Amino acid sequence: MIVTVTPNPSLDRTYEIPALERGAVVRAAGDRVDPGGKGVNVSRAVAAAGHRTVAVLPLGGPVGALLAELLAAHGIEVEGVPVAGPTRANMSLVEPDGTLTKVNAPGPELTPAESEALLEAVRARSVGADWIACCGSLPRGLPPEWYAELVARTHRAGARIALDTSGPSLLAALREGPDVVKPNAEELAEAVGRPLATVGDAVKAAEELRTMGAGAVLASLGADGQLLVDATGTYYASAEVATVRSNVGAGDASLAGFLTAGGTGEAALASAVAHGAATVQLPGSVMPTPADLDPAAVITTLDVPNDRPLKEPVWTGASPASKGAA
Question: Name one GO molecular function term (predicted).
């Protein structure tokens, strides 16, 4: 059983459009509404794979009520923490070549009492959980150290925790030793404060996150595949994808695949890549079922291609730590 924590959930409306033209009336070829937020997506992928999952999240207003209904329809147990502010609604515009434009609302501002209620809900639901997956940005009102406190409380409760966040929140949480962190290439570059031009650069950045406290680093490199760096070594995996329809939620599905396969080792990495590859071939933020997966297409190896240039080299500027943001 996997418990997910989404401090800033959303209702996500996705439009498939022929092209994005500023100032023009754009007619959508299709649209859909899904429960959103990174942790919510992980729960949706876990449920689609046939596993039990509980989504812990703050809920407020009519949008929050609709979000809870949609999650229940997906077979997800909902542990909603009532908050005064309304849950946010986001919009995604997807073009035929897979280009994604997102407009994310800020979401509610949580009070100290609501923050504590959310932490307590996670503690209560962590009993018997195989993993706690904490994902996404923090809403207004929660300091960067909030995830660090959640990691510390989860470990005191005897549970394992996977963290998918970035910036000051990631750096603060590393000091508490999360069992797994799942950055993408941009988040890796931001965390270490230097560019990533090759797969080897990403490996070194992941190793540095381990020295900062992470037990394991599951790094998504987009079209260049994924890395797993842990105490046993470094693993690399990739899968060819014929057509990218939408990359919304692909990283979240990857984390779900990793955790449902045990959350450690080469087999879990292969599952992560299979889930991510399946997701980008589905519309909107649809999560893959076992029938959508193609495990045979995934190639895993300990022979990491360190010299291979990244198809999308990354530089995001100085790390938050260098600015004193952590």
Answer: 1-phosphofructokinase activity
Distance, in Å, from the CA atom of 230 to the CA atom of 261, rounded to the nearest integer, reads 16
H or E, element range at 307: none
Helix (H, G, I), strand (E, B) or coil at 56: strand
User: Out of 12, 179, 224, 252, which one is annotated catalytic?
Assistant: 252
User: Known catalytic residue: 230?
Assistant: no
* Neighbouring residues of 112: CB distance < 8 A, sequence distance ≥ 6: 141
pLDDT in tens, 164-190: 999 999 999 999 999 999 999 999 999
pLDDT band, very low/low/confident/very high, at 152 (cuts 50, 70, 90)? very high
Q: Give the DSSP letter string of 226-245.
A: EEEEETTEEEEEEE--S---
Q: Which residues pair with 217 in a beta bridge?
A: 181, 229
Residue with tokens 């599952």: 271
CA angle 278, 251, 166 (to 5 degrees): 175
Report whether CATH 3.40.1190.20 matches the domain 2-17+28-313: yes
